[in-house]
Amino acid sequence: MGTVTPRSVLRYETWTLQPDREPDAEPVLYAMQCAVDGETSPASEDSTEPQNWVLRHCGQNPSHHTYREIITRPWRAWRQT
């Protein structure tokens, strides 16, 4: 019996990736997280609401000075034909 060699077929395709701005896309959401205790604001479509949360949080925790912004942005990918 002869030697069996594995064979592969590769197909390269071009894909496009971009933020999803379709009418049915999920909304962009903003949140802030305290880097000291990990507490996170509620997510909101309005970026000022999480920023206001930071001001309340640091008012209640005067030693908490560092925060990170969390942005959840929907993306879409499709194969170009």
From TrEMBL:
Domain DUF7848: 5-80
InterPro entries: DUF7848 (IPR057170)
Pfam family, one: DUF7848
Protein name listed in UniProt: DUF7848 domain-containing protein
Annotated source species: Streptomyces cyaneochromogenes
